[in-house]
Design a protein that fits this description.
This protein is an all-beta fold. It has strands at residues 3-6, 13-16, 19-27, 32-33, 44-49, 53-58, 68-70, 76-79, 87-92, 97-104.
Length: 105
């Protein structure tokens, strides 16, 4: 759920999300997925990877190099397709690394 917080300097409203469960994926030459499905209350995930990779969402996802590309060290936010059911999978583009996944509610 999106909530509004107050900017301390301007006093204006800003959109804010609460940090939830964090998971990591070892990004390698074979697809790997989060261990657990995202919570029913997690409509958005924040992701950042130490390596260039490709991502796929599904109940039992398998990432391929044809899926969405995420450059290394770039923070991105994605809407969870089906909260409570969806997982995220990743596969490397070139080198092994780690994908950090944070549920946001």
């Amino acid at each position: 759920m999106t909530e509004m917080a107050t900017d301390r300097k301007s006093g204006g409203a800003i959109q804010a999300l609460q940090i939830g469960t964090e998971q990591t994926i070892s990004v390698a030459s074979s697809s790997a997925a989060t261990s657990n499905a995202f919570a029913d209350t997690s409509g958005v995930v924040r992701v950042v990877s130490t390596t260039d990779c490709h991502l796929a969402f599904a109940a039992s996802p398998t990432a391929t190099t044809s899926n969405t590309y995420l450059p290394a060290n770039q923070v991105e936010y994605f809407k969870v397709p089906v909260p409570g059911t969806s997982k995220l999978a990743a596969i490397r583009a070139n080198a092994d690394g780690t994908l950090y996944v944070t549920e946001m509610a």
